[in-house]
Specification:
four-stranded mixed β-sheet; UDP-n-acetylglucosamine1-carboxyvinyl-transferase, Chain; binds uridine-diphosphate-N-acetylglucosamine; single chain; 2 domains; alpha/beta
Length: 428
Amino acid sequence: MVELLKVVGGGRLVGEVHVTGAKNSVLKLMAAALLAEGTTTLLDVPDILDVEIMAELLRRLGCEVSHNRIQSTVEICVPAVLDHRADYDLVRRMRASICVLGPLLARCGAAEVALPGGDNIGSRGLDMHVEGLIKLGAQAVNEHGYLIASSKQRLRGDLVYLDFPSVGATETILMAAVTALGTTVIDNVAREPEIIDICIMLNAMGAQISGLGTSTLTIDGVDALQPVTHRTVPDRIVAGTWAVAAVITQGDITIRNARAEHLQIALDKLVTAGAVVSILDDGFRVSMNQRPLAVDIVTLPYPGFPTDLQPQFIALNAIADGAALVTENLFEARFRFVQELARLGADVRTDGHHALVRGHQKLSGAPVEATDIRAGAGLVLAGLVAEGVTSVYGVSHIDRGYAGFVQDLQRLGADISRIEEDALKPQG
Ligand code: UD1
């Protein structure tokens, strides 16, 4: 049997949604818990597959992990002695598993992490992670599909320049440096809200990190960290996906537990497309009563336009009035999803980093395959405005990043259901 989402296009989405904590933060917060012996509690944890994978990974390292889905909490009990090997069977399912590399090296003086798989969105190197750890005194080799890092002595603070503000490399080096001897300065770091969230938690645990939200983080190493309770920052990509859903369906959605300041460029683009965005105390409201105008976008590291909202905006442009140029600067293969969108009748031509999207009044429902989390979200959004039925396969990708997506869409008025189909039976 194969699972799919059946979307019948047509309706406006109207109502309220509540956004949970950010996937891209909580996975790293779970890894950061490894740095302190004892029980760390995380609040506002999304009920998504990736949290389960990370919980299993931590269990195999020797932690006790309990995930309370009703209360949206995760409790991680970290022992005095940890195992330091993250196996391929889990790491290949989720690239973010690499975030245990820094904490394991800091805690155990050694880490063996299988080279990751995860999203199917192009080559995603680890060179900056490795170079940063070497700068702090570690040795690193790549053997039998594992990245093996070790350090006979405690890591030593140093000056690390990143070639590019990589989210993952910033996190690895940061988490390795918090208990290093002396001061580490990491320059050209990623400034995503999720990085700030990790720094806030680490500082609460006793770390000495300054420069939060700037391009340079200064870390004065401390001897040990203590466990804490920490609330995860809201998921700006999920919030942004709901904002696009409101605009594409010419609907009206109030998005609670969301921070408009984390989505400034994306919301500004939606206003350019013709939407009304009102800021509320705990979120924002997006309403639209006309066919959207096409909007150009260029993805860049934060605070630039997020690559994780690029497929959703391509879907929006596919039904917009006019043509838009979309430039993807982070992941070369992210345009792969365009071939699926073309099955719905979208007119998108790609050339290297660029996609030219010519808006059409209508899309027409068809079977499509999600190739990664955000492509899946983009295809569902397109299905909401396509005539007839769109069957979105590859649902597990969507489950990796969007908690309760189908239920929320149904509550907003979408005609969507999750069904199982016999993979071998011809479908009509
Ligand atoms: C994180 C997010 C992902 C988001 C991305 C960019 C998580 C779990 N994932 O991914 O959703 O799309 O940030 O905002 O948080 N690179 C190298 N060498 C390195 C590291 C990165 O060449 O050592 C390249 C990658 O191939 C990619 C680019 O840098 O082209 C961005 O990668 P990075 O910022 O590290 O993204 P991730 O941490 O993988």
